């Protein structure tokens, strides 16, 4: 299940760049990953 999470994030365009794809994939397969996602509501666009 968690190994599919990285695939879904990539398919949806949420992963633009990763310095070590293999290590990130292994992390997603081995444990639950928590991410902080934030945005600046005063910005002209979301980035």
Tell me what the structure shows.
With 47 residues, the protein is mainly alpha-helical. Helices cover 43% and strands 0% of the residues. The protein has one domain. It is elongated. The mean pLDDT is 83.
What key phrases describe this protein's structure?
single chain, 2 helices, mainly alpha
Describe the protein's topology.
Elements: H1 2-11, H2 21-30
Helix pairs in contact: 1-2
Question: For the CA atoms, what is the radius of gyration?
Answer: 13 Å
Could you give a short account of the major beta sheet? none
Class per helix and strand makeup: mainly alpha
Order of helices and strands: HH
Q: Gap between N and C termini, in Å?
A: 28 Å
What's the pLDDT, averaged over the residues? 83
Number of strands: 0
Helical segment tally? 2
Instruction: Indicate the percent of residues in helices.
Output: 40-55%
Strand content: under 5%
- Morphology call: elongated
Low-confidence stretches: none
Total domains: 1
In a few lines, what is going on in this structure?
The chain has helices at 2-11, 21-30.
């Amino acid at each position: 299940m968690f190994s599919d999470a990285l695939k879904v994030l990539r398919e949806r365009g949420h992963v633009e760049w990763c310095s070590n794809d293999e290590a990130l994939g292994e992390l997603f397969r081995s444990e639950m990953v928590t991410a902080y996602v934030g945005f600046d509501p005063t910005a002209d666009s979301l980035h």
